[in-house]
Specification:
The chain has a single domain, classed as 7,8-Dihydro-6-hydroxymethylpterin-pyrophosphokinase HPPK (Alpha-Beta Plaits, 2-Layer Sandwich), CATH 3.30.70. The chain has helices at residues 15-29, 67-80, 124-133, 144-149, and strands at 2-10, 33-37, 41-43, 54-63, 97-103, 108-110, 113-115, 138-139, 142-143, 157-158. Strands 1, 2, 3, 4, 5 and 10 form a six-stranded antiparallel beta sheet that branches. The chain has four helices and ten strands; from the N terminus they run βαβββαβββαββαβ.
Length: 163
């Protein structure tokens, strides 16, 4: 079983409800155990800043799927929730974005998959929720909490828990 970190994001529709359903789909479709789930965070948009704020979160799962099968499944789940990768604008609005951040300590460099995620340590919108659930996890030689300490988390707001 692999210990996997996945970042969730979106800014179209009821994103928090989408997260709840998407996480259930991830666990069901990958036969994974949910080990941890961060809070939801409202975050400034990245890239194209002329759009609604995003909501971001991270989960930690345990799965026996290999990284490529897991990525394929995550893309199927995104599509199920309305994402059309080929037609979307880069860094534009989306209903659901699922990024595979780390898969155990596996390193992959292929056109369709890079592990760990090549920009995980540059993005506070990933690091803030990630540090909530796995602050001491080392990814590509960097501790999550230490990577977050190097970035500004200005504009990132923890949202109240949903009951």
């Amino acid at each position: 079983m692999a210990d996997v970190l996945i970042a969730l994001g979106g800014n179209v529709g009821d994103v928090r409800a989408t997260f709840r359903k998407a996480i259930a789909n991830i666990c069901g479709m990958t036969q994974a155990a949910l080990l941890a789930r961060s809070s939801d965070y409202a975050t400034p948009p990245w890239g194209d800043e002329q759009q609604a704020r995003f909501i971001n979160a991270c989960i930690e799962i345990e799965t026996s799927l290999d990284p490529h099968a897991l990525l394929f499944t995550l893309h199927k789940i995104e599509h199920k929730f309305g994402r059309d990768r080929p037609k979307e604008t880069r860094w534009g609005p989306r209903t659901l974005d699922l990024d595979l951040i780390a898969y155990d300590d596996v390193s992959v460099q292929k056109p369709e998959l890079t592990l760990p995620h090549p920009r995980w340590f540059e993005r506070a919108f990933v690091l803030v929720p990630l540090a909530e659930i796995v602050p001491d996890r080392v990814i590509a030689g960097r501790r999550v909490a230490a990577a977050l300490a190097e970035l500004s988390s200005a504009g990132i707001e923890r949202l109240p828990d949903l009951n």
